[in-house]
């Protein structure tokens, strides 16, 4: 029995009629979705889709995970507190303990957990604020093709000109620097270091450098570990705080809980959202090194800092990280994706494809304008959800739930390959 | 059976140890909450609290409303899609139809619905952006003691200096004007009009004027309907967009669905969040007059625009507005609050109390420094959740769930009166 | 013998052909000027003009003052150093000594003299910088209809929307407050004080308040001495620096050397330019209370800080202030202007005239659109230089050289009266 | 007979006592100057100095040029109009005609002349304003180690962090890009082009690119002609206005009237000041391509736009450009300087010297901290005025008046060489 009765044939009209023109995914995926489980989604016509999109990295544990679902239903049934601002609750306390036990302690990380409002842009805004407060400086360095969110503070550190223009005001107090490999010859660090050490460079010593280790929206650009270490070194040299925005690349997306673990760096501030909530419920946290946690009480607040349903699912999600199995599984599946990408680039040279990314956050950039979008459209028609990325939508990306199995991956690959063939008229 | 097992005696330590210093309500209400129903909340020691706080206006329909709870559990059980970014889903479509049918059509309002990310500050940021885009202007006029949120755009239109200072950067492109009754002699409109019409005033013609009809955080200041109409008139005269931030005062808090209905004005943009989600789940919408809905697709986006659980509860919550009963009930209870306030001010002259607010958003401002906070502390000890408001926390405010019954109100009043007596040593 | 030979009949074309469209006074006074002495000017056609304009307050000592002229010629003849950046020179030293002896010491003022670049906007920019440095704050409060200059810092504290718009960027870090008498009921101080003392007002505690005691460009609005004292009191109460921009109203224009003397206030910073140079040569100084003179060497610099010709004339000009005669003379002539204005307003009621200003900085505001401009045009044709002021050019103003004699004034008055009659068709 | 009588022995005290701490050159050159002629200056003790400083490029025609002096004295004697705001005057008209005839027409340049206020920072501010108005954009790209002036607009495009910090507010709406040769491998253009063409770069399409062809204050860095052409090409490709700030490098300093002539580029806007006035009197002009001269009348104004003495000297100065002799002479002297620099670098390897600059705007950068300053101090003691340049004062620079003769140069060189030897203990 389905709770909400709808007439399938009328549905897309509802959105066109009542929803703002700003709507986006209902255009890329023009159908009305109803049900979802694991790596699969169904629309009102019961058409099945394999999900290579995963809520843009929010559904690392898949749709409607059974264990979390059970806990959520129990929580609701028992009338445990649902909304609580940032009051102390059992669910919040449980999450804090669990996060410390499973994530921070084993990694020897001394972070305080801040609940900044349950969206990615909220955690980024809170990170920028505390970095400015700690250092007393105003400028923040961000990177070409960075994406950090839609509110003015986060937009100021976002690279995309279309999004920035949407601000309607000039965005300031930030400087955009070249991301790793932005130039063919790898000089990004030299460039940044020169600007920082030259007192005549016109770039003030910043409060923070904010970065994604893999740029999800900006084209699945993965920074090398060496570059990340170089950036950390610059931060230490000039007393700049290092903020890693791990909203999309974190929570296992690239193989480890934090995406920066293999680089061996220790950011001063880490932004988490998307999959931290486990079940796709709105949640975000900001991790702040204890020594920098100089907030005044309530200096940053917000109504939905106490989404207890999210805490319940989030705590359960952390059990995936109690041993290495989950992490190892991601590694294996990453290699499958990697091999498939190699195959496609090699086999379909007309694509002029370039491999991008890391872990289960990989994609193919095609030089040919419009091609990646066509491939995604074909894939949608064939039952695969996949989206593009990059300033010119030049990348089609593989972002399946991390819990996907090999069968799911292979089915998805088959659809991708068919779509590529169709688009290339092969 | 309680899902999450906790040792009550250790709990507050968990928050002190692991959570950032920024935490706030766990300081005002120093206990660990566990369960909630209607207008009551229980902590881990099974102490019961009457809720005169309602999630700062998020729980207008009370905690864990049974009808919504049933629908949420069913939705979860059937594995209907939970997280969907802004894809079309059955739950989203249902909400759009219902909102149009129950709210917009009967009020003859032609708004498009935007899902800007599920928090108050997200809807405010989206409102500012579209207003600037529509008009091509940059300045926004906001008011003394306004509160609109914690991200840089929203902070720029917020009055509180402590919060503003937290930005760590100068906040710009905004001008703060006196709210209604800011000066003892009512000249706010004259002041604003003069600045707008004088080309030498130093204040640029703004993109928008943003206001709360009752300032929730700024001291429960209620604007008169006349002032609201005057502001609308100024907006029309100078082609300025009028944004009403109805995040706290909307969804029935002052007696009507939109707080501005009795004033007879039609804002260009309306921000809703908090109680729009019905069950306290994160949700926000921005209403934009059709003619101003000139967003490009995806110009403002965000991960949690598709919180389907919230849509399910939100749709159910709208049924409260299918007839006048709910509205009338709020009116009656408002009068009870009003009478009680009159009684307290009259009876306890030492309070130097002043009545503030409208509907179920009323409070008492005490001139005596620190007194309102002491009263709230006493009330907490006696089992009542109530918080202060205003730049110097000078107001103690009554913000019960709208579904509270007379018994609940009276119990709450009794605790308030005892607390006042205690604080005044009577 | 005239040094530069010109063909008079071709001249205005030269300006139309070669000079930028931004040119202004060559439009209001469409003739080519050649010679000047005292309060008189002659164009290439030997038409004589009485000067009620005085270089917008730059020629307080009249055109080409004989004593200064003699010293300038001697200085040039002897090849004494002309351009010297801010090196120590005899002429600069002489000015510093003289200024201290004649101006500062007798008034018991302890200011350091800064040479910030030889224009009004330069002194204002330097004043804003040092005030921000001293206080560590960013906001500056300025006033409706203020005029402080055309560079971005000065424009930010200027009221005129046309000029502000010319910046091409949003102007920030400033707040515009109502000048004295901006509202019919005099509440300006109450407004400002309320904004400053309320921590929820949205207006940050400023580094400085900058004001003109009489607003020259903004409509010849004279602040009352009481208001000036109230502003100083606010500054002291909130540790705000008080900057008086005395560029136009200073150097005797309103009767005393500093315009603020009769109010009994002691600004922290004073901006002087225009007539400080004596002969109309570019010069500006910024006076900074010793305790606030915390500049690092060269923190503000500029090429033309050492205009030695200006120093020579400026030192001579100061001799006017060695006794009370000059000051008393201004007072007498001010009363003549005042009486004449009363007469015009009374006699020509169709003007709907309002008296404005103080000292030899007075004018008549006419409610009738365009009238003041017409009167100035008529006056020009009749041989009088006079300009309008105010956001809508609604004031025609009397700004003769302070050295004008009674005959000169009366001749000017006669032309004004004729012009008024002509415009009113009398 | 000396006009101003001073007691030499007391003089430096005057400046220490009365002048602000911001004073700078009176510290580097701690004596009181009195007289000057050609390339020589004398102090009150009649000590003679050779001038390798030339008012930081203001005295290209030397001190107190006899022809100009004669005209100035005549102008004064005849009581021709001295101060005239921007009214049409004979002297202004003469300059406009002369400038068009001698400079613009022969170079086939179609510029309108704007008088923006008589300082370098005024012309830069006006250039930024008109560029933003023409394009409707806000961002301006400037370069590392650029110097454009001390007012907020000009500071925003200046690289030096000490000067920028002096603003007391964050400087915005500008982006600092690497100047030619900023990196050892010459990639500046590639960097800039990539930022401009990538819509995800975080750098908005700018209104203008502003540059000095040789950076005078930033370390005597000379851009290659190729780089200048590349920058112009970028400007054309992206419809960006090119502003050349020729305040220091213009008026013949590098061998041609405009410094950019040999590069074959045609900037949209040119800023001139310093030597444009001929005699060291305050003057500045902004040249704007006719098609971009869309100013409204009076949109940018200022009191000292009519410094007629400066116009008289400026017109005379232009006669130097009526044939090639002056230009050729500069070329010869430049080669002498160049050879001398080669000699010093070769002979005194301990200097670790690097040659910088072009024309009569050359210098030696020494890697050894503090050395260049010591050399300048030694030179001063020996009777040579010379100053350092660069973010760490690492360059000692040769900026003699262009009219210097070979004897003067050689005398200066001898002092420099002695100073180098002394400092190196040779």
Automatic annotation (TrEMBL), chains A, B, C, D:
Cofactor(s) this protein cannot do without: pyridoxal 5'-phosphate
Pathway membership: Amine and polyamine biosynthesis; ectoine biosynthesis; L-ectoine from L-aspartate 4-semialdehyde: step 1/3
Protein name, as recorded: Diaminobutyrate--2-oxoglutarate transaminase
Matching PANTHER family: DIAMINOBUTYRATE--2-OXOGLUTARATE AMINOTRANSFERASE, DIAMINOBUTYRATE--2-OXOGLUTARATE TRANSAMINASE
Top-level class of the enzyme under EC nomenclature: transferase
Gene symbol of the encoding locus: ectB
Annotated GO biological process: ectoine biosynthetic process
GO molecular function: diaminobutyrate-2-oxoglutarate transaminase activity; diaminobutyrate-pyruvate transaminase activity; pyridoxal phosphate binding
InterPro entries: Aminotrans_3, Aminotrans_3_PPA_site, Dat, Ectoine_EctB, PyrdxlP-dep_Trfase, PyrdxlP-dep_Trfase_major, PyrdxlP-dep_Trfase_small
Keyword Cell membrane: no
Matches recorded under Pfam families: Aminotran_3
CDD domains listed in its UniProt record: OAT_like
């Amino acid at each position: 029995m389905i709770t909400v009765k709808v007439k399938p044939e009328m549905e897309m009209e509802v959105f066109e009629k009542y929803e703002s023109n700003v709507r986006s995914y209902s255009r890329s995926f023009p159908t009305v979705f109803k049900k979802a489980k694991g790596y699969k989604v169904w629309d009102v016509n019961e058409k099945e889709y394999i999900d290579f999109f995963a809520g843009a990295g929010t559904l690392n544990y898949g749709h409607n995970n059974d264990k979390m679902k059970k806990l959520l239903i129990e929580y609701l049934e028992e009338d445990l507190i649902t909304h609580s601002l940032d009051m102390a609750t059992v669910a919040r306390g449980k999450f804090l303990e669990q996060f410390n036990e499973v994530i921070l302690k084993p990694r020897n990380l001394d972070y305080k957990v801040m609940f900044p409002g349950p969206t990615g842009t909220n955690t980024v805004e809170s990170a920028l604020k505390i970095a400015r407060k700690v250092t007393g400086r105003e400028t923040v360095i961000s990177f070409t093709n960075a994406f950090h969110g839609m509110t003015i503070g986060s937009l100021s550190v976002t690279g995309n000109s279309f999004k920035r223009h949407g601000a309607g005001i000039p965005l300031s107090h930030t400087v955009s620097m070249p991301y790793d490999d932005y130039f063919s010859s790898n000089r990004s660090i030299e460039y940044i270091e020169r600007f920082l050490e030259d007192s005549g460079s016109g770039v003030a010593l910043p409060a923070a450098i904010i970065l994604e280790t893999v740029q999800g929206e900006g084209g699945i650009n993965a920074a090398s570990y060496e570059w990340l270490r170089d950036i950390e070194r610059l931060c230490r040299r000039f007393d700049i705080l290092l903020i890693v925005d791990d909203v999309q690349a974190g929570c296992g997306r690239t193989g480890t809980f934090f995406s920066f673990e293999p680089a061996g760096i220790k950011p001063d501030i880490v932004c988490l959202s998307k999959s931290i909530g486990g079940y796709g419920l709105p949640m975000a946290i900001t991790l702040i090194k204890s020594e920098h946690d100089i907030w005044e009480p309530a200096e940053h607040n917000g109504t939905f800092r106490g989404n207890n349903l999210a805490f319940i699912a989030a705590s359960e999600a952390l059990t995936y990280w109690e041993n290495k199995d989950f992490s190892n599984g991601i590694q294996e599946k990453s290699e499958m994706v990697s091999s498939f990408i190699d195959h496609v680039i090699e086999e379909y040279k007309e694509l002029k494809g370039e491999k991008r990314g890391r872990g289960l956050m990989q994609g193919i950039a095609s030089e040919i304008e419009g091609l990646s979008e066509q491939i995604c459209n074909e894939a949608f028609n064939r039952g695969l959800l996949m989206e593009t990325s990059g300033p010119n939508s030049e990348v089609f990306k593989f972002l399946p739930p991390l819990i996907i199995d090999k069968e799911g991956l292979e089915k998805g690959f088959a659809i991708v390959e068919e779509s590529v063939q169709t688009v290339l008229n092969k």
